[in-house]
Design goal:
Elements lengths: L2 H4 L7 H34 L23 H17 L4 H17 L41 E3 L2 E8 L4 E5 L2 E4 L5 E3 L4 E9 L3 E7 L4 E8 L10 E2 L4 E4 L13 E8 L2 E3 L10
Antiparallel strand pairs: 1-4, 2-3, 4-11, 5-10, 6-7, 6-9, 7-8, 8-11, 11-12
């Protein structure tokens, strides 16, 4: 630019300067704007100021990168882009994919089955036992040893009065009225388990049957009708009604009859025919 042409007169006055700007001022301002625009273009091409547009809505000051070079500048750009990506919420589709992936991972994991804790109390491991009805089952082949009515009933839970002993006491059998010398028959098939002279009930014979049952025949006249281990069939005569029971001397003539289940006395009426 030739400044002499713009200012040919060194002794220019204020008035002359004003007139000069009125005539050539437009061109001077235009040239200055062109110079500034060119300088800005050079700066933009050197420092790639388009980078802030990649950061979305964040404003980046170009001067912050003026003193950074090489790897330092790349490190700052990488950290800023990472920060931006962490602040963006995940899309709904991505969230669904992540949930499905987590569910699939849980399915692939082996399931652990907890073993039951050992029971230190062996009694609780046993199955509940079936309750057995206390009502006796009458065998089909059970018959009455003698024909008669009951004069003294079975009494283990209550007391009955003994005329002979003159006291209240238990009675673990039944007394069936019968005349002396009346044949006494076996109530069922069995084996003679015992023949004895009992101090309270006199001559006594015990027959052993199936299912843990035993029948006892007491106050008999003689003990020589049968012998131990002898097989007996139902209806066989094993003795005769007598009067050998010291505990029942004052009672009318009768047969003392007992039934035992597993050696425990039970009510004989449950095994006798109903007409007796």
């Amino acid at each position: 630019m030739n400044m002499k042409k713009l200012f040919p007169n060194k002794g220019i006055t204020k008035k002359g300067l004003f007139q000069l700007f009125n005539k050539k001022g437009f061109y001077i301002v235009l040239m200055l704007c062109i110079a500034i625009a060119g300088t800005a273009a050079v700066i933009v091409s050197m420092y790639d100021i388009s980078f802030p547009a990649k950061l979305g809505s964040q404003k980046v000051i170009p001067d912050e990168f003026d003193n950074l070079a090489g790897k330092a500048r790349q490190s700052v750009e990488s950290s800023m882009s990472t920060a931006l990506s962490s602040t963006v919420p995940p899309k709904k589709d991505d969230a669904k994919l992540n949930d499905n992936k987590a569910v699939q991972e849980n399915k692939d994991k082996p399931k652990t089955v907890s073993e039951p804790a050992p029971n230190n109390n062996p009694g609780t491991d046993k199955k509940p036992q079936k309750t057995v009805s206390s009502k006796p089952i009458i065998p089909k082949d059970f018959i009455a040893p003698v024909m008669g009515h009951i004069t003294l009933d079975y009494a283990m839970d209550t007391l009955v009065y003994s005329k002979t002993m003159e006291e209240w006491r238990v009675h673990q059998g039944v007394d069936i009225s019968s005349d002396r010398g009346t044949p006494v028959k076996a109530a069922a098939d069995g084996v003679v388990a015992e023949v004895r002279k009992d101090p309270g009930y006199g001559v006594t014979i015990v027959l052993e049957h199936q299912n843990g049952l035993k029948t006892v025949y007491a106050n008999l006249a003689s003990d020589n009708m049968v012998s131990p281990n002898q097989l007996i069939e139902q209806g066989d005569v094993i003795g005769c009604v007598g009067n050998t029971a010291p505990f029942e001397q004052s009672e009318e003539s009768h047969l003392h009859f007992e039934v035992k289940k597993n050696d425990k006395p039970i009510d004989p009426k449950g095994y006798l025919p109903k007409n007796e």
